[in-house]
Amino acid sequence: MSRTKVLLTGAAGQIGQVLTRALIEKYGKDQVVATDISSDPGFNCHFEKLDVLDKDGMKTALSNHKINHFYHLAAILSATGEKNPSLAWDINMKGLLNALEVAVELKTERVFFPSSIAVFGEGVDKDRTGQNAVLIPRSVYGISKAAGENWCNYYFEKYGLDVRSLRYPGVIGYQTMPGGGTTDYAVDIFYAAVKEGHYECFLEAGARLPMIYMDDSIRATIELMEAPSDRIKVRTSYNLQGMSFTPEEIYQEIKKYRPDFTIEYAPDYRQKIADSWPGSLDDSDAQKDWGWKRAYDISKLTKEMYLAIQEKLKK
Ligand code: SER
Q1: Whole-angstrom Cα distance, residue 261 to residue 252?
Q2: Is the entire prediction scored with pTM above 0.85?
């Protein structure tokens, strides 16, 4: 097998930056090409500006660098999507179709597409939502991800494209800031705790959502992409579960590190998005098919997040 050479779109994003660095660590800096519409956040690998709506530019980059693993991350998240539905649809859908078409044309070996808990909406059990539960998303973002997963499956069935996908829960990490999502509060709350000792939360106290620590989400992504093809039985997107908590529960955990930390709840339009999402996912297919196992629970996550952000803000 040829050596793995990867290209990422959306490499400057919340997951992209951490995943790019993890891939550099794994394959070496000459084996990674990071691309984004915004500027280089300071990677030590090759970086190119790329708009995912520019199909020719995408094809040139993949072909010039002889890419065999393509991580197409660029997307507009749920809250921004509600404010600008047509932009979210264009970037999320046209961007993905460009990626899939180019990958077929260039016979790219493997493609990764991030999906989300947002694909679920009405008519599902909120607790341990199943892999094959009905998809009736309420947000534009969720609609684009549900359609996207099905496009991935279509390209696998029709063209044999080896495309793999995960339904990420809210991703929580100290390295990068999320942007425009509904689960962003779970990162913001740590910065507020360390800096101000007070947080105004845009979701209700009891808004239970599935979440995952950044380390786990990066490991899941690379493990999925490294798994032999015949282990990947789901070609839409795998449910992925880290942990589940409410704003009040994470607040109580953070208080163990800062007992004077206070919170108030001022839910806004994002509460409606959260209301439509599951509280937890059943990820037993991921466990069974390619050996997924989470390493972080809420207490381990809180400890690492709080201490890392404290350290970061000292500098
Ligand atoms: N974190 C994303 C969001 O909140 C969910 O996939 O939009």
Answers
A1: 9
A2: yes
